[in-house]
Design goal:
It is a single chain. The chain has about 270 residues and is α/β, with parallel strands linked by helices. Helix content is about 40%, strand content about 15%. Helix 1 packs across helix 7 and helix 4 packs parallel to helix 5. The longest helix has 16 residues. It is globular, with a radius of gyration of 19 Å. The protein starts with 5 loop residues before the first strand and ends with a helix.
Protein backbone atom coordinates (compact mmCIF):
# COMPACT_ATOMS: atom_id res chain seq x y z
CA UNK A 1 0.00 0.00 0.00
CA UNK A 2 1.20 3.49 -0.88
CA UNK A 3 2.07 5.45 2.29
CA UNK A 4 -0.13 8.25 0.99
CA UNK A 5 -3.10 5.93 1.35
CA UNK A 6 -3.03 6.65 5.09
CA UNK A 7 -4.43 9.96 6.36
CA UNK A 8 -3.95 11.20 9.93
CA UNK A 9 -6.24 13.83 11.43
CA UNK A 10 -5.19 15.67 14.59
CA UNK A 11 -1.58 15.16 13.50
CA UNK A 12 -0.15 18.10 15.46
CA UNK A 13 -1.69 17.16 18.82
CA UNK A 14 -0.47 15.06 21.74
CA UNK A 15 -1.33 11.73 20.15
CA UNK A 16 -1.29 12.59 16.46
CA UNK A 17 2.20 14.06 16.54
CA UNK A 18 3.47 10.89 18.18
CA UNK A 19 1.62 8.73 15.68
CA UNK A 20 3.20 10.34 12.61
CA UNK A 21 6.62 9.96 14.25
CA UNK A 22 5.91 6.31 15.05
CA UNK A 23 4.86 5.61 11.47
CA UNK A 24 7.90 7.44 10.11
CA UNK A 25 10.18 5.35 12.35
CA UNK A 26 8.83 2.29 10.53
CA UNK A 27 9.34 3.79 7.09
CA UNK A 28 5.75 4.92 6.56
CA UNK A 29 5.09 8.55 5.61
CA UNK A 30 1.34 9.16 5.80
CA UNK A 31 -0.67 12.19 4.80
CA UNK A 32 -1.45 14.58 7.66
CA UNK A 33 -4.46 16.89 7.59
CA UNK A 34 -3.44 20.42 8.63
CA UNK A 35 -5.08 23.84 8.63
CA UNK A 36 -2.09 26.17 8.86
CA UNK A 37 1.41 26.54 7.47
CA UNK A 38 2.80 26.37 11.01
CA UNK A 39 1.25 22.94 11.58
CA UNK A 40 2.35 21.81 8.14
CA UNK A 41 5.93 22.67 9.05
CA UNK A 42 5.59 20.73 12.33
CA UNK A 43 4.56 17.49 10.65
CA UNK A 44 6.57 17.80 7.42
CA UNK A 45 9.59 15.80 8.68
CA UNK A 46 7.33 12.80 9.32
CA UNK A 47 4.30 13.12 7.04
CA UNK A 48 3.03 14.78 3.88
CA UNK A 49 0.96 17.83 4.92
CA UNK A 50 -2.44 18.02 3.25
CA UNK A 51 -4.45 21.21 3.60
CA UNK A 52 -7.96 20.78 4.98
CA UNK A 53 -10.22 21.94 7.78
CA UNK A 54 -12.58 19.57 9.59
CA UNK A 55 -14.88 22.52 10.18
CA UNK A 56 -15.07 23.14 6.43
CA UNK A 57 -16.39 19.92 4.83
CA UNK A 58 -15.85 21.12 1.27
CA UNK A 59 -12.12 21.36 1.96
CA UNK A 60 -11.97 17.64 2.79
CA UNK A 61 -12.83 16.16 -0.60
CA UNK A 62 -9.37 16.62 -2.04
CA UNK A 63 -7.65 15.74 1.25
CA UNK A 64 -9.44 12.38 1.51
CA UNK A 65 -9.15 11.48 -2.18
CA UNK A 66 -7.49 8.06 -2.72
CA UNK A 67 -7.20 7.48 1.03
CA UNK A 68 -7.55 3.84 2.07
CA UNK A 69 -7.09 4.14 5.83
CA UNK A 70 -7.84 7.11 8.06
CA UNK A 71 -7.11 7.88 11.68
CA UNK A 72 -9.86 10.06 13.15
CA UNK A 73 -9.21 12.14 16.23
CA UNK A 74 -11.27 15.17 17.19
CA UNK A 75 -9.54 17.67 19.41
CA UNK A 76 -11.33 18.01 22.80
CA UNK A 77 -12.92 21.37 22.06
CA UNK A 78 -16.49 22.61 21.88
CA UNK A 79 -16.45 21.60 18.20
CA UNK A 80 -15.34 18.00 18.80
CA UNK A 81 -18.63 16.44 17.69
CA UNK A 82 -18.66 18.37 14.40
CA UNK A 83 -14.96 17.74 13.76
CA UNK A 84 -15.34 14.00 14.15
CA UNK A 85 -18.59 13.72 12.23
CA UNK A 86 -17.21 15.71 9.30
CA UNK A 87 -14.16 13.42 9.23
CA UNK A 88 -16.37 10.32 9.28
CA UNK A 89 -18.59 11.68 6.52
CA UNK A 90 -15.58 12.62 4.38
CA UNK A 91 -14.10 9.13 4.85
CA UNK A 92 -17.34 7.49 3.75
CA UNK A 93 -17.70 9.80 0.74
CA UNK A 94 -14.13 9.02 -0.33
CA UNK A 95 -14.64 5.27 -0.10
CA UNK A 96 -12.10 4.79 2.69
CA UNK A 97 -11.57 1.09 3.45
CA UNK A 98 -10.58 1.38 7.13
CA UNK A 99 -11.28 3.83 9.95
CA UNK A 100 -9.25 3.84 13.16
CA UNK A 101 -11.17 5.95 15.63
CA UNK A 102 -9.66 7.55 18.73
CA UNK A 103 -12.22 7.26 21.51
CA UNK A 104 -11.61 6.99 25.27
CA UNK A 105 -11.76 4.40 28.03
CA UNK A 106 -15.15 5.41 29.42
CA UNK A 107 -16.99 6.27 26.19
CA UNK A 108 -20.72 5.70 26.66
CA UNK A 109 -23.85 6.97 24.93
CA UNK A 110 -25.77 8.98 27.51
CA UNK A 111 -22.73 9.75 29.67
CA UNK A 112 -22.98 12.96 31.68
CA UNK A 113 -19.55 13.85 30.30
CA UNK A 114 -20.16 15.26 26.83
CA UNK A 115 -16.92 13.95 25.24
CA UNK A 116 -17.70 10.46 26.52
CA UNK A 117 -21.20 10.65 25.05
CA UNK A 118 -19.89 11.90 21.70
CA UNK A 119 -17.34 9.10 21.58
CA UNK A 120 -20.03 6.57 22.37
CA UNK A 121 -22.26 7.86 19.58
CA UNK A 122 -19.46 7.86 17.04
CA UNK A 123 -18.26 4.38 18.04
CA UNK A 124 -21.72 3.12 17.15
CA UNK A 125 -21.84 5.09 13.92
CA UNK A 126 -18.48 3.81 12.69
CA UNK A 127 -19.45 0.22 13.49
CA UNK A 128 -22.60 0.61 11.36
CA UNK A 129 -20.90 1.80 8.16
CA UNK A 130 -20.04 -1.58 6.67
CA UNK A 131 -16.32 -0.83 6.38
CA UNK A 132 -13.32 -1.96 8.43
CA UNK A 133 -13.10 -0.22 11.78
CA UNK A 134 -11.09 -0.29 14.99
CA UNK A 135 -11.70 1.80 18.11
CA UNK A 136 -8.89 2.81 20.45
CA UNK A 137 -10.05 3.66 23.98
CA UNK A 138 -7.05 4.84 25.97
CA UNK A 139 -7.28 5.83 29.60
CA UNK A 140 -5.71 9.02 30.97
CA UNK A 141 -2.38 9.99 29.41
CA UNK A 142 0.66 10.14 31.66
CA UNK A 143 1.26 13.61 30.22
CA UNK A 144 -1.90 14.69 32.13
CA UNK A 145 -1.04 13.05 35.43
CA UNK A 146 -1.29 14.94 37.71
CA UNK A 147 -3.53 17.56 36.15
CA UNK A 148 -2.03 20.33 38.28
CA UNK A 149 1.76 20.10 38.46
CA UNK A 150 2.26 23.62 39.91
CA UNK A 151 0.24 22.73 43.01
CA UNK A 152 2.27 19.55 43.48
CA UNK A 153 5.68 21.18 43.05
CA UNK A 154 5.01 24.54 44.66
CA UNK A 155 2.39 23.78 47.32
CA UNK A 156 2.88 20.03 47.91
CA UNK A 157 -0.83 19.54 47.21
CA UNK A 158 -2.40 17.02 44.86
CA UNK A 159 -5.79 18.19 43.62
CA UNK A 160 -7.13 14.78 42.62
CA UNK A 161 -10.40 13.36 43.91
CA UNK A 162 -12.11 10.04 43.55
CA UNK A 163 -11.76 8.85 47.13
CA UNK A 164 -10.61 5.23 47.14
CA UNK A 165 -11.26 4.76 43.42
CA UNK A 166 -8.32 3.96 41.21
CA UNK A 167 -6.95 6.02 38.34
CA UNK A 168 -5.24 4.33 35.43
CA UNK A 169 -2.84 5.86 32.92
CA UNK A 170 -0.84 5.15 29.78
CA UNK A 171 2.08 6.73 27.97
CA UNK A 172 0.77 8.37 24.78
CA UNK A 173 3.87 7.04 23.03
CA UNK A 174 2.53 3.53 23.66
CA UNK A 175 -0.88 4.53 22.31
CA UNK A 176 0.78 5.94 19.19
CA UNK A 177 2.71 2.70 18.67
CA UNK A 178 -0.55 0.74 18.89
CA UNK A 179 -2.34 3.12 16.53
CA UNK A 180 0.47 2.68 14.01
CA UNK A 181 0.11 -1.11 14.18
CA UNK A 182 -3.65 -0.98 13.78
CA UNK A 183 -3.35 1.31 10.77
CA UNK A 184 -0.75 -0.78 8.97
CA UNK A 185 -1.52 -4.38 10.01
CA UNK A 186 -4.41 -6.68 9.24
CA UNK A 187 -6.51 -8.45 11.85
CA UNK A 188 -7.93 -5.57 13.90
CA UNK A 189 -11.34 -5.15 12.25
CA UNK A 190 -14.26 -4.91 14.65
CA UNK A 191 -12.09 -4.51 17.74
CA UNK A 192 -12.46 -1.97 20.55
CA UNK A 193 -9.17 -1.78 22.40
CA UNK A 194 -9.26 -0.42 25.96
CA UNK A 195 -5.70 0.71 26.63
CA UNK A 196 -3.92 1.14 29.97
CA UNK A 197 -0.51 0.57 31.47
CA UNK A 198 -0.22 -1.84 34.38
CA UNK A 199 -0.46 1.04 36.86
CA UNK A 200 -3.48 1.95 38.96
CA UNK A 201 -3.39 4.53 41.75
CA UNK A 202 -5.76 5.98 44.27
CA UNK A 203 -5.21 9.69 44.86
CA UNK A 204 -3.35 8.85 48.09
CA UNK A 205 -1.10 6.36 46.29
CA UNK A 206 -0.38 8.86 43.53
CA UNK A 207 0.52 11.49 46.13
CA UNK A 208 2.91 9.05 47.78
CA UNK A 209 4.61 8.22 44.49
CA UNK A 210 4.95 11.87 43.50
CA UNK A 211 6.30 12.76 46.93
CA UNK A 212 8.96 10.07 46.68
CA UNK A 213 10.04 11.37 43.29
CA UNK A 214 10.15 15.09 44.16
CA UNK A 215 11.64 14.64 47.62
CA UNK A 216 8.96 16.00 49.92
CA UNK A 217 5.58 14.91 51.24
CA UNK A 218 2.64 15.53 48.93
CA UNK A 219 -0.83 15.69 50.47
CA UNK A 220 -4.15 15.08 48.73
CA UNK A 221 -6.10 18.35 48.88
CA UNK A 222 -9.36 18.02 50.78
CA UNK A 223 -11.17 20.59 48.64
CA UNK A 224 -11.10 18.70 45.33
CA UNK A 225 -14.67 18.53 43.98
CA UNK A 226 -15.98 15.09 43.06
CA UNK A 227 -17.50 15.48 39.63
CA UNK A 228 -16.85 14.68 36.00
CA UNK A 229 -13.77 12.50 35.65
CA UNK A 230 -13.32 12.10 39.39
CA UNK A 231 -16.91 10.94 39.76
CA UNK A 232 -16.06 8.10 37.38
CA UNK A 233 -12.94 7.36 39.42
CA UNK A 234 -14.99 7.18 42.61
CA UNK A 235 -17.48 4.88 40.88
CA UNK A 236 -14.74 2.40 39.98
CA UNK A 237 -14.92 2.99 36.24
CA UNK A 238 -11.18 2.64 35.70
CA UNK A 239 -9.25 -0.60 35.84
CA UNK A 240 -6.17 -1.98 34.14
CA UNK A 241 -6.29 -4.20 31.07
CA UNK A 242 -3.65 -6.35 29.37
CA UNK A 243 -4.68 -5.14 25.92
CA UNK A 244 -1.79 -2.72 25.40
CA UNK A 245 0.70 -5.34 26.49
CA UNK A 246 -0.72 -7.87 24.03
CA UNK A 247 -0.69 -5.40 21.15
CA UNK A 248 2.76 -4.02 21.90
CA UNK A 249 4.33 -7.40 22.60
CA UNK A 250 5.92 -5.89 25.71
CA UNK A 251 4.97 -4.38 29.03
CA UNK A 252 3.62 -0.82 28.58
CA UNK A 253 5.71 1.92 30.11
CA UNK A 254 5.27 2.37 33.84
CA UNK A 255 4.32 5.77 35.21
CA UNK A 256 7.32 5.79 37.55
CA UNK A 257 9.64 5.36 34.57
CA UNK A 258 7.81 8.12 32.69
CA UNK A 259 8.30 10.40 35.70
CA UNK A 260 12.01 9.64 35.89
CA UNK A 261 12.43 10.83 32.31
CA UNK A 262 10.14 13.85 32.31
CA UNK A 263 10.27 15.28 35.82
CA UNK A 264 13.47 17.31 35.19
CA UNK A 265 11.80 19.00 32.21
CA UNK A 266 8.60 19.64 34.15
CA UNK A 267 10.55 21.20 37.03
CA UNK A 268 12.51 23.38 34.61
CA UNK A 269 9.37 24.61 32.83
CA UNK A 270 7.71 25.57 36.11
CA UNK A 271 10.76 27.23 37.64
CA UNK A 272 10.12 30.95 38.31
CA UNK A 273 11.93 33.26 35.90
Amino acid sequence: MDDHGILITGASGTLGSRLVRSLAAHGVQPRALVRTREKADQVAPFATPINGDLLAPKSLEAAFRDVERVFILGQPTADMEVLERNAIDAAVAAGVRRIVYMSNFTALVGSALRPNHIHGVHEGLIASLGIEWTVLGPTRYMTNMPFDWPSVLQDSLLHEGGGGGTMTCIDPDDVAAIAAKVLTEEGHHGQTYKLTSNDAFTAAELAELLGARIGHVVTVADDTPIGGYFELVAAGSYHTTDTAERLLGRVPRAYAHWLDEHLPRIRSELKPT
